[in-house]
């Protein structure tokens, strides 16, 4: 487990410093040594688990319900199987994130396995239940085109399912992932989930995919819709699931205080239904995201007895 009091002091140190968490350029005696110590502490936290602590146990309390059958069912699912949402092994354990591990996704044709990419997608894989396993994700690759100095392969997940429950299957691509408990800032990895929803007829997965295409669509084809990074969807971890033949989104949200004190963070998970919208209108404009919140659960950590 990570020493949270020390970690909080490192967080405040990183915010107050005029440079990175290493303390270089702070102009304060001992700043470098303190920064190095903090960097080591943070790196240990990020390498093995979310900073919240991989042994933190959560309770989910239903605060809002617009469909008692769905909400009571998911209350049992969350409390029964998602009590340790941040629990994951260290990356450097041999074989833990290998191609035959429980963390690995099935691959699209031609995709080779990468342990680091599997680690980065951990929170999209586990914990899980039959409701979440109903989405048959496959792992693929994409690249950035505009970055001439960075043409590395990057991981994405692809699945075909009816995300908006309109009776027609969509192609859903997830190229962005939450990487840790803390949101992105300075040297914190953070990360947020994002989905791009394509009409099944408007994308050819046999062609090389680029990040720019997720916004603009493939040449001569309709632009996709976007879930995540959008007003009205302040969620960092989004996982679709199927219940009684309908698709829902399990969406995790953090509310941080102004002083960034981890002890004051409020956490919720919402069950949503996506009805459409969030389409690229061009020139930086997006149509309104249409989602209905079906359930809201307050997440609280359970203190050890």
Question: What can you tell me about this protein's structure?
Answer:
This protein is of the alpha+beta class and 305 residues long. The strands form three sheets. It has a five-stranded antiparallel beta sheet. The protein has a five-stranded antiparallel beta sheet with strand order 2-3-4-5-6. Strands 10-11 form a two-stranded antiparallel ribbon. Strand 10 and strand 11 form a beta hairpin. It starts with a helix and ends with a strand.
**Rg from C-alpha positions?**
20 Å
Number of strands: 12
Question: What structural class do the secondary elements suggest?
Answer: alpha+beta
Provide the domain count: 2
Give unreliable regions as ranges: 1-51
Order of secondary-structure elements: HHEHHHEEEEHEEEEEEE
Largest sheet strand order:
1-12-9-8-7
Could you say which overall geometry the principal axes of the C-alpha atoms support? globular
What is the tally of helical segments? 6
Largest sheet: 5 strands, antiparallel
Rounded average pLDDT: 80
Binned, the helix content reads 10-25%
Which band does the percent of strand residues land in? 25-35%
Report, as a whole number of angstroms, the end-to-end distance: 17 Å
Describe the structure using short key phrases:
5-stranded antiparallel beta sheet, 6 helices, 12 strands
Indicate the topology:
Blueprint: H1 4-16, H2 31-48, E1 57-65, H3 68-81, H4 115-120, H5 130-133, E2 138-142, E3 154-161, E4 170-176, E5 194-199, H6 211-216, E6 225-227, E7 237-243, E8 246-255, E9 266-277, E10 280-282, E11 285-286, E12 289-302
Antiparallel strand pairs: 1-12, 2-3, 3-4, 4-5, 5-6, 7-8, 8-9, 9-12, 10-11
């Amino acid at each position: 487990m990570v020493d949270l009091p020390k970690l909080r002091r490192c967080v405040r140190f990183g915010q107050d410093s005029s440079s990175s968490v290493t303390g270089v350029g702070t102009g304060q005696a001992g700043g470098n040594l303190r920064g190095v110590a903090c960097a080591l502490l943070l790196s240990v936290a990020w390498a093995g688990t979310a900073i919240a602590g991989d042994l933190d146990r959560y309770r989910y309390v239903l605060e809002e319900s617009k469909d008692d059958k769905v909400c009571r069912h998911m209350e049992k699912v969350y409390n029964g199987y998602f009590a340790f949402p941040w629990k994951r092994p260290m990356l450097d354990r041999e074989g833990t994130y290998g191609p035959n591990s429980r963390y690995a996704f099935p691959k699209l044709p031609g995709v080779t396995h990468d342990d680091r990419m599997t680690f980065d997608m951990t929170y999209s894989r586990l914990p899980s239940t039959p409701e979440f396993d109903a989405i048959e994700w496959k792992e693929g690759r994409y690249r950035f085109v505009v970055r001439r100095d960075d043409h590395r392969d990057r991981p994405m997940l692809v699945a075909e399912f009816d995300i908006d429950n309109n009776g027609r299957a969509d192609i859903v691509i997830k190229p962005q992932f939450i990487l840790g408990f803390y949101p992105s800032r300075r040297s914190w990895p953070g990360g947020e989930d994002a989905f791009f929803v394509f009409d099944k007829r408007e994308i050819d997965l046999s062609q090389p995919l680029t990040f720019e295409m997720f916004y603009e669509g493939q040449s001569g084809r309709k632009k996709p819709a976007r879930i995540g990074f959008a007003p009205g969807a302040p969620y960092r971890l989004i996982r679709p699931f199927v219940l009684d033949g309908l698709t829902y989104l399990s969406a995790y949200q953090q509310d941080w205080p102004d002083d960034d004190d981890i002890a004051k963070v409020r956490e919720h998970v919402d069950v949503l239904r996506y009805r459409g919208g969030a389409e690229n209108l061009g020139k930086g404009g997006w149509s309104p995201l249409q989602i209905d919140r079906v359930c809201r659960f307050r997440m609280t950590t359970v203190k050890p007895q």
